[in-house]
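Figure 6 in text form: structure in, sequence out.
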């Protein structure tokens, strides 16, 4: 997701990023991106987003090395 990051934190892995999203104040975190930290190979960057690819499909862009996590919808 581009343009919807409400916070960016260094994490060890994707699970830690999920926990950051779950703990976000006011439940404003709706999805998150995780990508390598270019300054520290031991860490990853976690970007918390206030939108999802379903709510803002035009802002969902491919970025090499980045992984997007959104809500799971039960059908």
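Output sequence:
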């Amino acid at each position: 997701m581009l343009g919807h990051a409400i916070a960016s934190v260094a994490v060890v892995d994707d699970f830690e990023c999920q926990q950051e999203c779950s703990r976000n104040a006011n439940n404003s975190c709706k999805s998150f991106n995780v990508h390598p930290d270019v300054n520290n190979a031991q860490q990853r960057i976690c970007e918390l987003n206030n939108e999802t690819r379903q709510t803002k499909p035009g802002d969902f862009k491919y970025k090499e090395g980045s992984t997007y996590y959104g809500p799971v919808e039960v059908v």
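Caption detail: The chain is about 15% helix and 30% strand.
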